Amino acid sequence: MRELTIYRELANRIQARLNCIKKGDQENAVYWTGEHEKCIESLKDLLPSGSGIEGISIDLSNSTGEKIIIDSSFHAMNDSGYYDRWIDFSVTITPSLIHGISLKISGRFGKYQDIKEYLFDVFDDSLRETVKEYYCQNCEEVYYRKREELHSCPVCGNKLQ
Ligand SMILES: [Zn+2]
Q1: 80 CA to centre of ligand 1 in angstroms
Q2: CA nearest 127: which of 10, 39, 13?
Q3: Rounded to the nearest whole angstrom, what is the distance from the C-alpha of residue 103 to the centroid of ligand 1?
Q4: Ordered DSSP codes for the chain
Q5: How far apart are CA 85 and CA 43, in angstroms?
Q6: pLDDT tens for residues 61-75?
Q7: Cα 95 versus chain centre, distance
Q8: What is the pLDDT of residues 7-22, one digit of tens each?
Q9: What is the Å distance from ligand 1's center to 44 Cα?
């Protein structure tokens, strides 16, 4: 088991995927591209969703190890407590010497500027969280868990270290 920071593991997997794509057909590069994509998908599931945030996707065509773009939508609620419109937004994550990462949220927030600040905090906290990475040698699968410990593989029951 390894303990990892979510944003760093995401950046590592995104860069590793790009490196595999560059290799073309050599050294099982197609297989590994798929493996990294599975990991990116699992890491994406650890990002905040629900309570208004829906449809999180990682823009793999424009993300690199040094810049990650996350696209999503937020269902805004008006002052009377009714659902208003969906706000499509992007979170761009870049490295920062002082803070480790720097986030930029963009989208047409209009009168909902407080939502922009809210999303900033929620994504900033969640990307900095640590996650435990488990690997099952039998299934050749990677599992990420935030809080619970995984002692055996959820698929084959193999003991995990
Ligand atoms: Zn297994």
Answers
A1: 50
A2: 10
A3: 36
A4: -EEEEHHHHHHHHHHHHHHHHHHTTGGGHHHHHHHHHHHHHHHHTTS--BTTEEEEEE-TTT-BTTBEEEEEEEEEE-TTS-EEEEEEEEEEEEEETTTEEEEEEEE--TT-HHHHHHHHHHHHHHHT-EEEEEEETTTTEEEEESSS---B-TTT--B--
A5: 28
A6: 999 999 999 999 999
A7: 15
A8: 999 999 999 999 999 9
A9: 21
pLDDT digits (tens, 9 = 90+) for 146-161: 988 999 999 999 999 7
Instruction: Report the separation in Å between the CA atom of 8 and the middle of ligand 1, taken as the mean of its atom positions.
Output: 25
> Mean pLDDT score of the chain, rounded to an integer?
94
Question: How far apart are the CA of 59 and the centre of ligand 1, in A?
Answer: 29
- pLDDT tens, residue by residue, 127-147: 999 999 999 999 999 999 998
Residue type, 76: A
CA of 160 to the centre of ligand 1 (A): 8
Cα of 93 vs centre of ligand 1, distance in Å, is 33
Contacts of 67 (CB under 8 A, 6+ apart): 92, 93, 94
Say whether pLDDT at 97 is over 90: yes
* Tokens read off for 3: 């303990």
